[in-house]
Amino acid sequence: MTSYIWICTISYTCVVHKILVGLFYVFLCSQSGIYTFPYPLQPPPFPAQYNPADLSHVSVPQEELDIRPKVSSLLSRLVNYTNITQGAKEHEEAESTGMLHVSPNMGTLMGVYLPCLQNIFGVILFLRLTWIVGTAGIVQSFFIVLMCCSCTMLTAISMSAIATNGVVPAGGAYFMISRSLGAEFGGAVGICFYLGTTFAAAMYILGAIEIFLKYLVPQAAIFHASDPHGGDSAILNNMRVYGTICLSLMAVVVFVGVKYVNKLASLFLACVIISIISIYAGAIKSIFQPPNFSICMLGNRTLVRDQFDVCSKVVLDGNVTVPSQLWKNFCSSGNISSPQCDDYFNQNNVTEIQGIPGLASGIIRDNMWGDYLEKGQILEKAGLPSVNVHGAVESIGLYVSADIATSFTLLVGIFFPSATGIMAGSNRSGDLKDAQKSIPIGTILAITTTTLVYFSSVVLFGACIEGTVLRDKFGDAVSKNLVVGTLSWPSPWVIVIGSFFSTVGAGLQSLTGAPRLLQAIAKDNIIPFLRVFGHGKANGEPTWALLLTGLIAELGILIASLDMVAPILSMFFLMCYLFVNLACAVQTLLRTPNWRPRFKYYHWALSFLGMSMCLALMFISSWYYAIVAMCIAGMIYKYIEYQGAEKEWGDGIRGLSLSAARYALLRLEHGPPHTKNWRPQVLVLLKLDEDLHVKYPRLLTFVSQLKAGKGLTIVGSVIQGQFLDSYGETQAIKNMMEIERVKGFCQVVVASKVREGIAHLIQSCGLGGMKHNTVVMGWPYGWRQSEDPRAWKTFINTVRCTTAAHLALMVPKNVSFYPSNHERFTEGTIDVWWIVHDGGMLMLLPFLLKQHKVWRKCKMRIFTVAQMDDNSIQMKKDLAMFLYQLRIEAEVEVVEMHDSDISAYTYERTLMMEQRSQMLRQMRLSSAEREREAQLVKDRHSLVRMGSLFHVITIRRHRVPRWSTRLRATVSFVWFCPRDQSNVRRMHTAVKLNEVIVNKSHDARLVLLNMPGPPRNTDGDENYMEFLEVLTEGLERVLLVRGGGREVITIYS
């Protein structure tokens, strides 16, 4: 028997090329325009000097020869047909000739249609489609095919649009997605496509081993079941051993030379075509003469046919009735008169029915609807009489039973790989003469052809084959024959041998294509840890990528079940197709100027429909596999985003980001943000040294801790000079921002004067609603010793500019002592000295800092100042209640000071006397306090600016304690008193307040203070700087804060 099989195999191989070449010779001659066959063929009267290669004497225009080439050239292409992706064959040629020469000359038929056809048709058609039809029924099987093929058709339309939008070099699907959606999406989907192709190799190898062990050489099995329940483990172990051997041999073939795979490509294609033709021929023949494959039924249960010879309980041996082999299988005694048999065997009759009734039998009515089975459930035929009794457990192995539990979703996942392979044309784009024409036509025609074959196969299988045989996955009921082979003509061996060769060929092609895809991803250098796989042999062959592909494919081999591997690769292919549709939809909706595909029959709605179908099929097939595949793609995406190489490919995601940013900016223009949404949008003013290096990098560190990547950060600097000489000096700031991990924007202004440049930055930074509301700048160290007063004059001028622009201001003093991002405070406090209510800035900033890991363990303390005649206990209760309503955890402490210590404080902004009286009434001051405040104003020769009435009213509306507004009325500085009185009083106040702050907060990690406004008259600038120095003396880290004139924190949700 084995020798007969090998003889058939050799004969089949030899005949295949002759049949294929003959058929295509007739077809091509009839289409070439050179020879026609209207009459019987006779040799033409050629002249004596006739040269077969010279067609000048034939009246055929040159244009006709270009369009419809000579028969000899087409036959040569057919014989040299290859389904290997571009690059593989050329590398082999380069190895032998020493030079790389590629001339793209493949057309639609040879370059796209046939490769797609061969990749789409595969192991599922021959090994599982009959089982799917029997389990799901014709109607549901039709729906499964419709869903899967519609998904691939919509994906092919999107792919055609992308492929015709310019030249598509080597890389196929990976190149299209990466250049359309960016490096992140391209890398994630490229890895998914690679994993799908690798697991496809494992699936094809498992299919080939299943055919080999089940139908070709069953005697080759190494492991055998010791009991009826151990059959599954023995089969899986055999699949693992032989699968590993087959994978190793294929990897060696691919490593030694792709040219050997290339030479067998036409054989593999012929196997697929002849096998499919034999199925149709057998279906037509079954109308007149159905194949003789009978199945034996015990009651309504299907029996394993190869365990007995005659489908009967007894047989005649001469004139004597003796027990049959079937009787002996069910009975422990061979005596008919006193049998000890299985109960079900005793009470049910044995019948024999036709396994292949034929196309005209009407069996299609019985196969219209499905019959899903649980694992171990015996296959039964409805309509046959049966006595339902339990049989012996030992007899289970004699019946045909389901090896796995079946469901509609499982069948979808198993069938979908038979619809993949549509990328074969795009993978060969570099070999095509006109890729923009061939890829759409060839791919869509191939999908249409395969879809029609699948639809017709579903109908033919349901109309020709008995339902119990269809549900018999391994053909146990028909003597271990391949079920689809029982229908084929002229022999079941046509399908068995043809499917074996086609699956081996598909496995070789997958093992050839997957390493090259991984090599393309590695050479793009978007995933750093894959760089090693970009190297290979001297001619470019991906040796390391082949090794990794073999190891991953071995994982699929170890699963050892075709039904388990198929849903895995379905997930990866569906993920790839989903992003192809997404890429087309994004490009279409964005209407980018470069989006001009030659293929016009696409629409964004079709792409979204295809994307939705891919996502739905993923979760229909296997929701847990879908989640795993999406997590893998998501992790690769984030890895490339975080650590991958920066690539600017003009992708659609950048255009999408621009459109989204424009939409968001227009929405922000509608009005200022609500108090609940307020956060510091920071403009950081950096100072550069003579070498254009950042002078105080810890300023950026502090901002990164404050922002934690949220909101807007603009880092600005001013270069003194002329714009034409100094423009573009932003690299130092960008490098420092990357080091400190500050996510934001950089802007450098070149101006003749630094103060003018800073004013320009404060006025013009930002865009629309995305403008800064807070300015951060450093303290002018060494201003006392500086001979040039411009540094601290610029500082004060900047304070005035921020006040005029109603911006908040933060000045970190002693910023070099601020912690780096790698330090962490495990204890300590952040002390807030709340003297002036500034809209809540002092409350909000510590809360924001504590969100960062550096300051997270620090506690917050709030100090406020009271006069001796104030009720300190009530003030503390009011402040604690206020903090409770703000949802801020902090310790509260009230510090009492004498009137003389704080008498230098007054209102912050100037008001008329009437407004001042109204302010005092709203603050509910006592008459004595009102007289004291009036006397204070009378003693001073000018008024200083004070907060507008709006802010006090707002404070009261937010239930700020009465003492805080009173303190607001006692906290600004008078810089216009006579020099002999004002300076003494001011310094006295600063010294006393500094003593209290140092006494309470000398161990604090950070001290936040209200920053008073500068004097209106520039004559007091130096005194202002002295006051701030005295006020902050002895404190290690100080943050001076000045509000921007609006509420930034609220008690409401």
UniProtKB/TrEMBL annotation:
Establish whether keyword Transmembrane helix is in the entry.
yes
Residues passing through the membrane, by range: 7-28, 185-206, 241-261, 267-288, 396-419, 439-465, 544-562, 568-590, 602-626
Say yes or no: keyword Glycoprotein present. Answer: yes
Q: Where is the Amino acid permease/ SLC12A domain?
A: 112-288, 406-683
Which reactions are catalysed by this chain?
Answer: K(+)(in) + chloride(in) = K(+)(out) + chloride(out)
Check the UniProt entry and state the signal peptide residues, or none.
none
Q: Name one GO molecular function term.
A: potassium:chloride symporter activity
Q: Which UniProt keywords apply?
A: Cell membrane, Chloride, Glycoprotein, Ion transport, Membrane, Phosphoprotein, Potassium, Potassium transport, Symport, Transmembrane, Transmembrane helix, Transport
- Superkingdom of this protein's organism: Eukaryota
Q: Name one GO cellular component term.
A: synapse
User: Cellular location of this protein?
Assistant: Cell membrane
InterPro entries, per database record:
AA-permease/SLC12A_dom, KCL_cotranspt, SLC12_C, SLC12A_fam
How does it sit in the bilayer? Multi-pass membrane protein
Which Pfam families does the record match to this protein?
AA_permease, SLC12
Gene Ontology terms describing biological process? cell volume homeostasis; chemical synaptic transmission; chloride ion homeostasis; potassium ion homeostasis; potassium ion import across plasma membrane
Major place of localization?
Answer: membrane
Domain SLC12A transporter C-terminal residues, every copy: 697-811, 824-1053
The record's comment on protein family reads: Belongs to the SLC12A transporter family. K/Cl co-transporter subfamily.
Q: Record's NCBIfam families?
A: 2a30
Protein name listed in UniProt: Solute carrier family 12 member 4
